[in-house]
Amino acid sequence: MSSTRTDRAATRTAGPTLTGHLGDAWHTVAPRHDDPHGPLPGLLVPITVVTGLVDAFSYLELGRVFVANMTGNVVFLSFALGGTAGFLWWASLLAVFAFLAAALLGGRITHSAGGHRGRHLLIAAAAQSAITFAAFLVAVSRPLPYDDRALSTLIILLGIAMGLQNATARALAVPDLTTTVLTLTLTGIPADSSPAGGTGSRIGRRLVAVACMFLGAVTGALLVHAGDGPEALLLATGLLLTSTVIAATTTRTRQAGRKGADQPCDRHRHAQGRRK
């Protein structure tokens, strides 16, 4: 009898846990109105797909260089300097410098947004959309394999686009949605789990981030192998524009403020003042 009660208790415990993980995943894609980060998690989901698309294009079409993953570029640079064939030292170094320049630009946008995280994302996503589309235009106007001039132009444009995205995600600080790296996201799943003594792995949200980047990279690879590599950049532009439009709409109705605190928009505050 005691064993039966224990089994039933375990079943009841396991059920809500699975439901909680699925709910966490769903509310990452479609945040609740009371989410402390407002609509930002849902807006960062398609932007995470963009990383997979762009890095698939850059690695497969631009000569083994990443434009979003700077850890990879540092390693590739060391491979090239160590004499390994197939890696261009100047391409990896150029990607790093473009990324750093864009991170500086991202910092300026952070301060110009005045702490309004919705406005911050709107400005950054709009700028990234334009830069990524410019890279698409360059990619479709040049024959394969790209010569050094086209290669340099694409690396600079995409490095700036992804550096801006990284700086933006860092400033927005939505947990487990860095949009460009997965190392700490994957580490957190086992490290924060109950068997490890943690309070919860947040596996639902974290696996959404992993799945989004995986989906983007698979799609990008399929497009490249089909001879439509630049289409990955066009698709990335479309996703960025979608986030831009949604951000423009939501920032009119509510503000995602500093450290995730939702605040009324200016128009609503003025209305409250008139009623007083």
List keywords for this structure.
2 strands; disordered C terminus; 276 residues; mainly alpha; disordered N terminus
Task: Report on this structure.
The chain has ten helices and two strands. The protein has 276 residues and is mainly alpha-helical. Helix 2 runs antiparallel to helix 6 (148-172) and helix 7 (183-191) packs antiparallel against helix 8 (203-225). The N and C termini lie far apart (64 Å). Residues 1-16 and 254-276 have low confidence and may be disordered.
Estimate the strand proportion. Answer: under 5%
Largest beta sheet: what is the strand line-up? 1-2
Please estimate the helix content. Answer: over 70%
- Low-confidence parts lasting 5 or more residues at pLDDT below 50? 1-16, 254-276
How confident is the prediction overall: mean pLDDT?
Answer: 82
Shape: globular
Helix count from the secondary structure assignment: 10
N-C termini distance: 64 Å
Largest sheet: number of strands, sense, barrel closure: 2 strands, antiparallel
Count the strands?
2
Rg over alpha carbons: 21 Å
